[in-house]
């Protein structure tokens, strides 16, 4: 039996999968920070550039302040930043100099572990990012093998990627990233040993989602085969389309004879916190998921399935859902089997809907699919089908997009946006609308404490004080009374 560690994912992946990345703010993060540091996690899956953008856009909070404050508390446990390659907040491809600045600034503010998850498994791009992280002072780099199911993504494919990544001194560890929840225990039994055989002494972790109920049995199988850590969420931020629940995974591993390096008391308190947070804020809790063989055909993230159904319903095209799902498989094959994760999931779904509802397939091709075909997001694992590529090349819009000016270099961006700005503010202003950054700065420092028990009362007070038709309000419950009078 083996000794394993856990990586806690509630603040980043659980929050994103179940709460649209909106369920956590600075106060809710700092309130649970001491317990997270006490528990003994291998790392905290903390943020991405997407989450940093959400902090500015929807919370009017400085994401750099959030990282710094959290790092001051997390003395034992490294905070992880997940990067999908050469992009920061914006989906536009960033220059190497710009990404180098982003990685340096993240490290300086307190990020100690960098997770690199290229959505195409482009090992050259991952290795380039890893070098930047190390040169910028980043401490620990873990590279992803992004898992999917297709005729070309077999064990040999992942072994080739793993061998190239593990050979680099800039890569400290690897992990299998099953964003779609597709990895079953039978595939674990062949994939994990094959990858471990070529990465030497470098650690291997596993990250999977519960979307169709495969993640937990896969975790238990992987534990037998020598993975060093499993990535889990807590309380209401676990299960559903999120990651397996940490308390349950730890208990099952222990029952099977494994040793889990975790403070079970702190783990239980963390589980309770995220459950109470969700109840106080009206956030949906993750729950057990049934196996759905049909999911293997389209592999869309759970939230996107709901979006697809809503959009088809609003257009009175719900009867076409089956045809769209079948078309997703065809489009994916024709586009070179992209992995169905952001941004490719959105591209494949949009193209499939347009193909089914249009006068002919590929009569309309969205700009992002054209940019994908032009290599702006990296190179497909296999070439795009010749007929589809010929169709895309014939479009006038393709010529326009091919003629787009190259990415602006860092010195020119600095001159244009503000040479005297801090690196932190410059990176936000270079990637976000100016009014959103201005609103964030005007809002001032974020609150630093959160109490789930008082949150409903505070929300009631906010709503009552906003009412102009009330002059005298009495709130009474057992052991508590509050009176509000308008002056």
Give an account of the 3D structure:
The chain has 487 residues and is an alpha/beta fold. The strands form two sheets. An eight-stranded parallel beta barrel has the order 1-2-3-4-5-6-7-8, surrounded by seven helices. Strands 10-11 form a two-stranded antiparallel ribbon. Helix 5 (96-109) packs across helix 6 and helix 8 (185-196) runs parallel beside helix 9 (215-224). The chain is globular and about 75 Å long. The model has no long low-confidence stretch (mean pLDDT 92). The chain folds into three domains: 3-281, Aldolase class I (TIM Barrel); 298-402, Orthogonal Bundle (Cyclin A, domain 1), CATH 1.10.472.90; 455-485, no CATH class. 49% of the residues lie in helices and 12% in strands. Strand 6, helix 8 (185-196) and strand 7 form a beta-alpha-beta unit.
